[in-house]
Here is the input.
Amino acid sequence: MTWIDVLTLIGAIGLFIYGLKLMSEGLQKVVGDNLRKALSAMRSNRFAAMLMGVLITALIQSSSATTVIVVSFVNSGLVTLAQSIAVIMGANVGTTLTAWIIALFGFKFNITLLVFPIIALSLPFFNSNSSLRIAWGEFIIGFALLFLALEELKHLIPVVAQLSTVTDMLRDSSSMGYPSILIYVTIGMLLTMVIQASSATFAIALLMCVNHWITFEMGCALVLGSNIGTCLTPMLASLSANTMAKRAALGHLLFNVLGMIWALAIFYYFCHAISYLCIHLGIGDPHEADNVALGLALFHTVFNLISLILMSPITTQMAHFLSRLFPDKEDLDKDFKLQYINTGFMTASSEMALVQVQKEVSRYGDEVYKMFGLIQTMLDEQMGSEKQLELHQRILRLEEDSDSAELEIAQFLNSISPKTLSYSGEQISRNLYKEVDELESIADAICHISMVLYQKYEQRVRFTPEMNNNLARMISLIDIALSHMLKVLAMDQVPQSALNKAYNHEDEINNLRNQLRNEIFDSLDRKKIDYYQHSFFMHIINECEKIGDYVINVISSASE
Here is the structure.
C-alpha cells in the first residue's frame, strides 16, 4: 500500500462526508419553511419534541448538528432543558435513517452504475431560476457523490488488506470476549470524534464486516461507540454558552452513556436477538457478508428505539439531575445583552438559525421600547433634577449597547451562508437586516430626544403648559405605535390588518406633527413663545415623527 493509496482512502472518506453535507444542505433548503416551524412543535409536549428530533435529524442527516441546534436553543431560552433532552432522544433515532440509506443503496442494491446518470440528471436543476429546483439538484448530486465515495472505499479495501499485520490485528482483537467489545466501542467513539460523522463510521464498520475483518458483533460495538463520539461537537459548542446550554450538551452525553450501559450489559444477548429478528424478517443471517449491512442498520435502529423507550419517562428527572450538577449563576448585566443568539463556537445553522434571529430581533424591540419608557420618565421628572440627569446618562449608555447589539446580530446573520437557505429563508434574512437597522435608528432617535432635553435644561429653556400637553400627546401616540410594533415582531405570520393598523398609527403621528408645527409657528408669530422654545420643541416632535417612520419600516419588513 503506497502513500497514494493512503491519500486516496482519505479523499474517499472526505468525498463521502461532502456528499452527505451537500445532500443535507439541499434538503434543508427544500423544507426550509417547515424546518423553521419545528420550534413551536418542540415546545408543545414531550412526544412532539421527540418526534421533531427524529424528523429534523432525518432531514439534516446529522444528530450532532441537531444537538448543536438544540443546545443553542437552550442557550437562548427558546426551549427548556427537559424539552431539549426529548429532542436529543429523537435525534438519535432520526440519525439511523442514514444508516438504512447506506445499507440499502450502498450494499444491498448496487446503484453504482446509476451514479453518473444521476449526476447528469441533476445538472438541469442548476440552470433553473428556481431556488427550490437548485436545492433539489444539490440533494441529488450529494446523494450520488455519497455512493460514488462508498464505491471507491469498497475498491480500496482489498488494497488495505495487503497490510496483513493490520487485518491480523483486527481479527485477533475480535476474539477476546468483552474486552474486544470495549476496544471496538472505543475505536468507534474516537473515529467519530475525528471525522465528525457517525454515518462515515457506520460505513467503515460495514466495509470491515463485509470483508470479514471483524465480526458482526464487533461492528455493532463500533456503532455503539459512534453514538458517544457524536457528543463531542455539542460539548464543544456549549463551552462558550450559558449554564443551560452546558446542561443540554451533557444531557446528550448522559443519554448516550446510559444507552450504551444497558446495551453492553446484555450485549451478546442483544446481538443474538437482532440476528433472530433479521432471519424472521427475511433479511437473513447478519453474520453473512450479504446480510450484514441491513443487520447493522437494524441493530442501530432497535438500539436507539429501546433507549428512547427506556429513558423517555425520566426526561424530567434527568433535567433535575443536570440542574443540580450545574447550578444557575446570577447574571447582573442584562442591558441589550444578546439572549437568543450566540456569536461564539455555536455558529449559525441555516434555516433554524433564522428562528433565533427573529426572537433576538423581537427582544431587541422590547429593549428599545424600554429605552423609550425612560424618555417618558424623564419628562415626568422635574427639569434638571438628579433623577432626570441619571436617566439621560442611562439612555446614552443604552444607545451604545444598542449599536453593539445591532452589529452582533448583523454579524450573526452574515455568518449564515446564503447557500444553505431556501428562497423564503433568504427573504427573511434580508428583512431581518432591515428590521435590526430600523430598530437601531429608533434607539438613535430616542437618544437624540434625551440629548435635546438635556440641552434644554442646560440653556434653562422651559415649555409652556400647552407645549407640555401637546408633547405628551405625541409621546402617547409613539408609545402606541411602538407597542403595536412589539406585537408584530412576536408574530409568526403578520396579517394585513396588523399592517393597516400600523399605517393608521403613522397617519395619526404625521397629522399631529403637522398640526403642532402650524400651532408652534403661530405661537412664535404672536410672541407667545421665543425661538429657543420653538426650536427645542420642534426638535423633539421631529424626532418622534422619525420614530413613527422607523416603526412602519420595521412592521413592513416583518410582514413581507
